[in-house]
Backbone:
């Protein structure tokens, strides 16, 4: 079983998790196979990594869920599949920076979904969140033309953020009481099952290098990063962890700049600051809710 982690160690774990999450887009560029195979491979290796984590902890895969829980896991798995497919399309079409910043709009979509579907009141802070996110997207957009690969990539990234918001809302309202690692394992397993029919003929074209990158993507950027985030939340306040995870686009853009020479424009930097600032507002709001309810499990099943 795991030992106790101090606050400094938990902060380090959260930053490493944010960096690993940010590397997802980098692997999307490095892996030259189809987005279906990238998503399938990531999920498959994530299942393997999470299963090994359970074995290391002396635990087993849980199978005994209620029918409602199974339905919610299936629904969340579908949303996770859509999120990853659209995100990797965004990376392939528009590059790491616009894909990551488009995805980073998901907190705004969560606010809208909660308001429209569950009639939750939108606070002034949340209206500010939506405004900042909108302005940030306008600044990030290379030009308003569907002939521009950057614009199309950003739209795919935004769609990825919307799918992720649906995943978060489903998990928040349906996965409570289920261990976070079990949730992640089963949802990744559903991704594997959904995409297996579309990727089985592509295995013969999979190179050793792509297979290696897929293993890193699935084990490090999914399994290990998820574990580090959950582990850090045992010590850190959700607000602090949320602020650190909000740095994911920053890490992604900096690594892409270093590896591929993809230097962001000043407008993109300004848009990123606004979008990330909006995420920080959501992190503060989430922490307020968690303190009122004496629990800190939301983030652990969202990533």
Residues:
């Amino acid at each position: 079983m795991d030992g106790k982690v101090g606050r400094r160690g938990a902060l380090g774990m959260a930053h490493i998790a944010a960096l690993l999450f940010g590397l997802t887009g980098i692997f999307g560029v490095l892996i030259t196979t189809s987005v279906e195979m990238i998503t399938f491979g990531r999920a498959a290796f994530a299942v393997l990594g999470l299963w090994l984590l359970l074995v290391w902890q002396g635990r087993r895969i849980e199978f005994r869920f209620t029918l409602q829980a199974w339905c919610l896991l299936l629904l969340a798995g579908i949303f996770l599949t859509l999120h990853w497919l659209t995100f990797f399309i965004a990376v392939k079409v528009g590059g790491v920076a616009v894909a990551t910043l488009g995805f980073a709009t998901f907190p705004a979509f969560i606010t809208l979904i909660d308001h429209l579907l569950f009639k939750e009141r939108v606070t002034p802070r949340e209206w500010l969140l939506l405004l900042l996110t909108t302005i940030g997207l306008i600044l990030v957009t290379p030009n308003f033309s569907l002939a521009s690969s950057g614009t199309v990539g950003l739209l795919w990234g935004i769609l990825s953020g919307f799918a992720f918001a649906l995943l978060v809302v489903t998990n928040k309202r349906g996965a409570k009481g289920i261990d976070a690692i079990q949730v992640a394992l089963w949802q990744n397993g559903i991704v594997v099952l959904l995409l297996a029919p579309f990727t089985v003929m592509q295995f013969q074209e999979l190179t050793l290098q792509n297979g290696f990158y897929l293993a890193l993507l699935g084990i490090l950027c999914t399994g290990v990063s998820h574990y580090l985030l959950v582990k850090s939340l045992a010590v850190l306040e959700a607000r602090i962890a949320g602020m650190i995870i909000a740095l994911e686009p920053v890490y992604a853009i900096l690594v892409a700049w270093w590896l591929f020479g993809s230097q962001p424009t000043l407008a993109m930097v300004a848009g990123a600051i606004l979008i990330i600032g909006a995420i920080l507002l959501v992190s503060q709001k989430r922490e307020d809710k968690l303190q009122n309810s004496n629990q800190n499990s939301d983030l652990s099943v969202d990533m």
